[in-house]
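Table S2 (text version). Query chain:
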Amino acid sequence: MKHFLQLKDFTGEEFEYLFQRAKWIKHQFKNYLAYQPLKDRTLAMVFEKQSTRTRVSFEAGMYQMGGIALNLTTGQTQLGRGEPIEDVARVISRMVDIVMIRTYNQDIIERFAQYSRVPVINGLTDEHHPCQIMADIFTFVEHRGAITGKTVAWIGDGNNVARSWLQAAKIFDFTLNVSTPLGFELDAGDDACSNLKVFADPMEAARNADLLTTDVWTSMGWEDEEDDRKKLFAAWQVDSDMMQAAKPDALFMHCLPAHRGEEVTAEVIDGPQSVVWDEAENRMHTQKALLEYLLLGRLA
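Corresponding structure-token output:
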């Protein structure tokens, strides 16, 4: 039994397999060809944080694969009344086949996985967002081929998405240029590696990059800092000038939701270099491949 709690839980070879499966599964979906290997399987989705893409992609994906998805929120379960996460894991994992959790501290999902009888997927924590980066890299491969040897520029907050990008840089061997405002740096920790390059100037981080990517300036849980962050992050907006500093065929990505006029201009996110809608859709296709792999193992 495997869990997917952060990107480095899987090897590069495993991701190559997942991308092959995601490509095939997406082809089936686009051609209205039913593929339901997860018939009679149940996914429990546990949400302590709000969600649009994570819920829709997992729920729709599980149904399309022939299974059932249960949506559980803190307010609808005993989690909201303080039931220990270890007890929740023991109970839920006896009744379902796989669990996805979207929560706050990484420690919560690690403790859940420790007591779970079934695979656990990280739908987002404050520290990591592995499903998002899996979809992002798959999207890059669709549009530009292998990401190995390329340069990805992360512009903005050194948050959970940035940390997952750093793990990806080491796994796939590409350069990650990171530029954040002072005080919002990416904490590399155990993931520190030669693939990471840090820039004080966001324009320098973007220079000659193959991909520019960003996130909202104020993530969930930090709303009290929003006004201050808008002032501090002003120079880290991805605009047309920053895109021009990158390679002519550079792509733009954003994990969404986006705030046009803050971390990115409308001209960029709605422009020809943006692949954010493919990126969002690919959450479902890559997660379908992930569900299949965790429940059924390798099929090809």
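Notes on Table S2: Strands lie at 42-47, 68-73, 98-102, 120-124, 151-155, 175-179, 196-198, 211-214, 251-254. Residues 215 and 256 are 7 Å apart (CA to CA).
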